[in-house]
Design brief:
binds pyridoxal-5'-phosphate; Aspartate Aminotransferase, domain 2; 14 helices; single chain; 8-stranded mixed β-sheet; 4-stranded antiparallel β-sheet; about 15% strand; alpha/beta; about 400 residues
Length: about 400
């Protein structure tokens, strides 16, 4: 019998999650367009390659293969104990941890992103309400929605979550958790004040809602310190899971972050990890521990901050001088990578971003992609200074001004 084989189409086999709830990030498309057009990027949310400590990393990783035990499974699903102890000591020294938390409450993750994903898997059922800041980190929205969450945007201002709005939502909806990025938020650049954090926690206690505190920009602080972490404020209440990351202060490509969680959640998260990939690479965690133990971390961070502070100031200055009179307004972030702005008169910022990259070779991200469905804002725009020096800030702002003037003509 001659049988003409037709190739199998996996569309037929997809789970309802993969078919219906898995969405592709708009950010990837904009980064692709930036590269394709050879544009200046105000779109990038990753550290500048010139600030990655590559020589130090090379040294730190030089001896990791000498110890054959590093090539077996890590042995603890939580990750390399030396690195976890280092993180616990570092966080404790900076006053970021509550008394109960130590190395045994820390799990090494594949970036903060894996922490978001694991927490979502452990806490969300299809139809669950998840509270997010409005706006919030887009990849978190996609991750929670993949689990079937209905993400509800809580309005924010320059001091963080608006508490009366949070309460109003909680009166009407039983939320599984609040996801917050309290410092130098992605995308808004805003930092939640200490008073707001306390008020938010009080309200959440009243409704018995836990918190996922995502803090990858913590150390990129340019005008003074940061308010206390939610996890330290929560204390023995133990309702906060903290996510940290080495992506912004070492390199995103090493894919290393961590989660601090109380045992009532960590035991479940550990089981999810084993299920997904058994362990993360031991050699990587060992090399990173070597690096962090060898360098003066505060000197390294201050060096990063002095460069990013200059980049922030250069972009703000260039935007103000090029975009005045064009309906542009912006905030003034005290850290992180992002300036959040508005351009009056532009009704579809996604369309504008495509126009700007194609015609003026300047990459920006439309603010609307950072909102839970139904709470979008079409005039907002995210501008990153992570990768632009003073000359690029000036040239990029001039291009952005031309793009606004030409748009729709
Ligand atoms: C708020 C936020 N959370 C998490 C991540 C993911 O970072 P990581 O590289 O640690 O997975 C990012 C990256 O841009 C981010 O902005």
């Amino acid at each position: 019998m001659v049988c003409l084989m037709e190739s199998y189409n996996f569309e037929r086999a997809l789970s309802s999650m993969a078919r219906e709830r898995l969405e592709v990030s708009e950010i990837g498309e904009m980064i692709r367009l930036v590269i394709a057009h050879g544009a200046i990027s105000f779109a990038a949310g990753e550290p500048s390659a010139d600030l990655v400590p590559s020589a130090l990393l090379k040294e730190a990783f030089a001896d990791v293969f000498d110890d054959p035990s590093q090539l077996g499974y890590v042995g603890s699903v939580l990750g390399h104990v030396g690195l976890r102890e280092w993180i616990a000591g570092w966080m404790r020294g900076d006053g970021l941890l509550p008394d109960w938390a130590g190395a045994r409450d820390i799990m090494i993750t594949c970036g903060s992103q894996e922490g978001i994903s694991l927490a979502g898997e452990a806490l969300i059922d299809p139809g669950s309400y998840v509270l997010v800041e409005s706006p919030t980190y887009m990849e978190a929205l996609l991750s929670f929605r993949k689990q079937g969450a209905v993400c509800v945007g809580v309005p924010t201002d320059e001091d963080g979550i608006v508490v009366s709005e949070l309460e109003d939502i909680l009166r009407r909806k039983r939320a599984r958790f609040l996801y917050t990025i309290p410092n130098f938020q992605n995308p808004s650049g805003n930092t939640s004040s200490a008073a707001r954090r306390r008020e938010v926690l009080d309200v959440l206690r009243g409704y018995d809602v836990p918190v996922i505190e995502d803090d990858p920009y913590h150390y990129l602080s340019y005008d003074g310190g940061t308010p206390p972490t939610y996890i330290s404020l929560s204390g023995d209440d133990k309702r906060v899971v903290y996510l940290g990351s080495f992506s912004k202060i070492v390199a995103p490509g090493i894919r290393c972050g961590w989660m601090v969680a109380p045992d009532s959640l960590m035991s479940r998260i550990s089981a999810l990890r084993v299920n997904a990939c058994l362990d993360l690479p031991s050699v990587l965690q060992r090399g990173l521990q070597n690096l962090m133990s060898a360098i003066d971390v505060s000197v390294h961070i201050e060096r990063l901050c002095s460069v990013y502070r200059r980049r922030r100031d250069s972009l703000i200055e260039a935007l103000d001088s090029n975009l005045s009179g064009l309906g542009f307004s912006r905030n003034h972030p005290r850290g992180g990578f992002f300036i959040w702005g508005n351009v009056e008169g532009i009704r579809d910022m996604t369309d504008f971003a495509r126009h700007a990259v194609a015609n003026e070779k300047i990459g920006v991200l439309p603010g609307s992609i950072f909102f839970a469905p139904g709470s979008g804002d079409e005039t907002s725009i995210r501008l990153s200074f992570a990768k632009t020096d003073e000359a690029q800030a000036k040239e990029g702002s001039a291009r952005l001004a031309r793009a606004i003037k030409n748009y729709g003509k």
